[in-house]
Amino acid sequence: MNDWHPTTVAAVLPAAEGLTELVLDIGGTPLVGTHRTPGQYVRLALPELGEGMFAIASPPEPFGTRWEFLLKGGSPLVDALVKLQPGARVTSKRPEGRGFPLGHARGGNLLLFATGSGISPIRSVIESIRQERSAYGRVTLYFGARTPLAFAYEDEFHHWEAADIRVVRTVSQPGASGWQGLIGYVQAHLGEEPVEDSLAFLCGQSGMVQGVIDALRARGLAREAIHLNY
């Protein structure tokens, strides 16, 4: 049984400062329908460049034929992937990981935390929620980036907010950008956000993850209510 399946590049698009969106067409392959839980990731490979693991940024769709990814440059594999043209081939394995337990959040409130390219699996959660928004209570996204130009999916924020998903953005290194919004790390901006009856989903740098866990625990949220996607 072949674990690797050929996919076709559908699009490669700039996503934000230092980030690129890669869209793969999986139509006609055994991969269709295998992405079942937001937060799962897959192994992608190119000949002679090895493989890497990438979170799927699009929501699970039983019959969907496209997977979207957010890539951060810096490795030979990623640097090659972002230079591919539509029609190029990328091999992929089936999705792995338990993902986020979105089903457990039904009827309750959800706190989402992401930094940088960590927004990728969180976007999968958000798009899944939008498909059935009434099944969830309050949903708040805390999204941190290094600079104001480093927010991926910025053109989608108004769709998220129109679905009553609150978006709180903060920048850690505004420099001379003229940024007028929040400054600092995401865990510093919980404010008076109520955490009872909530689940928290986190993805980002380890420092942010631990800082958010500490802040939520200090507010009384049980550790078992805080979830990573691995």
UniProtKB/TrEMBL annotation:
Pfam families the UniProt entry points to: NAD_binding_1 (PF00175)
PROSITE patterns: FAD_FR (PS51384)
InterPro entries: FAD-bd_FR_type, Flavoprot_Pyr_Nucl_cyt_Rdtase, FNR_nucleotide-bd, OxRdtase_FAD/NAD-bd, Riboflavin_synthase-like_b-brl
Superkingdom of origin: Bacteria
Domain spans labelled FAD-binding FR-type: 2-102
SUPFAM superfamilies cross-referenced by the UniProt entry: Ferredoxin reductase-like, C-terminal NADP-linked domain, Riboflavin synthase domain-like
Protein name per its UniProtKB record: NAD-binding oxidoreductase
Source organism phylogeny: Bacteria, Pseudomonadati, Myxococcota, Myxococcia, Myxococcales
